Amino acid sequence: MKTVAGYATVIVMTAALFAELTMLVPGLHWGPSEGPLLTVGDAVFYLLASVAMVSAVLVAFSKSILYSAIALLGALLGAGGLYVLLRADFVAVTQLLIYIGGVLVLILFAVMLTSRIGQASATNPATSVVAGLVLLAALGAVLGFAAAEAPWKGAAHPLELEATAERIGDLFLGHYLVAFEVISLLLLATLVGAVVVARKEIKE
Amino acid sequence: MSQLAPGLPHFLVVGAVLFALGTYTVVTRTNAVGILMGVELILNAANVNFVAFDRFNPSPHLSGQVFSLFVIVLAAAEAAVALAIVLAVYLNTKTIDVTEADTLRE
User: H helices within chain A, ranges in order?
Assistant: First the structure.
């Protein structure tokens, strides 16, 4: 219970910090200049973004592999919420079904099968942390600077709450038909391959 | 034209942070499952970028969302195969520490 409360507090504080930083960077001023400083849409964005980012930090730095796996749930959920915010309803539901319902459960199974949960404090060791931190800082700085300062030309097109599933289906069976067929073949190969790799050989 | 208040750069910054953290996870973890989690973070960062660029494309045609769906499917396939490999390695060596799975090097 204490952990959950601390997690929620950290998320809210990160959201506030992120919003505050956004005000400082001139490249991030996109909204209309008049009106309230922080609308409900903004607040939802900052909350979801900080759920994703704080959970990603936990995935990266947690000492227990089980905590990392649970934190991955938060990161995936936060990203799914951002998809809803971006009017990508089908992608958001797919994220929920495949990532959280499939991949995450698979990862949890692997965690349970391969690590001794009893010694939970040292199941997720890290090497060369300093070099990793340097890389993290450099990557974050360069990519974040490029994202915030580049003169992006785009603008949100007025696509108001339209269901996207139908048009995505048209694209899959029209413009992206070959890729769609290839990926179904790949899924079949993956299914067979995973079973073959993971099975126990019985010697006669 | 209505402008969504959190603009494209906001989402790109989130994607950048997720990508950097995923890279850090992949580089520093020695637990194979932990490395896999880092890969998932990186793929999610790419997906956030795809969907955001699609949303803020002046001429809407949902290609970014289709790409992100392909990425999700590929991530699921990759996770299934990677975890099968992890289980096979664990059955053979009783560990999933990637620094100790160096039989081919000897």
Answer: 2-24, 40-61, 65-85, 89-94, 104-114, 129-149, 165-172, 177-198
> How confident is the model over A96-113, as pLDDT tens digits?
999 999 899 999 988 888
State whether residue A60 sits within 8 Å of chain B by CB.
yes
Of the residues A30, A63, A159, A201, the best mutation for testing chain B's interface (the one with the most B CB atoms within 10 Å of its CB) is A30
Q: CA of A162, closest CA in chain B: separation in Å?
A: 12
A157 and B76: CB-CB below 8 Å? no
Burial letters A66-78, b for 16+ CB under 10 A, else e: bbbbbbbbbbbbb
Q: Does residue A94 have a pLDDT over 60?
A: yes
Determine the distance from the C-alpha atom of residue A14 to the mean position of all C-alpha atoms in its chain, rounded to a whole number: 16
Q: Is A84 on the interface with B (CB under 8 A)?
A: no
- The answer to whether the Cβ–Cβ distance between A147 and B65 falls below 8 Å is no
Query: Nearest-CA distance from A126 to chain B in Å?
Result: 5
Q: How far is A5 from chain B (nearest CA, A)?
A: 23
List the single residue in B with minimal CA-CA distance to A55. B18
Task: Mention every residue, 6+ apart, whose C-beta is less than 8 A from residue A5.
Answer: none
Q: What's the pLDDT tens digit per position in A136-148? A: 999 999 998 888 8
Averaged confidence pLDDT in chain A? 82
Average pLDDT of the segment spanning B70-89: 91
Q: How confident is the model at residue B1, as a pLDDT?
A: 34
Q: What's the confidence (pLDDT) of residue B90?
A: 85
Q: Where do the domains of chain B lie, and which CATH numbers do they carry?
A: 8-98 (1.10.287.3510)
Interface predicted TM-score of the whole assembly (ipTM), two decimals: 0.88
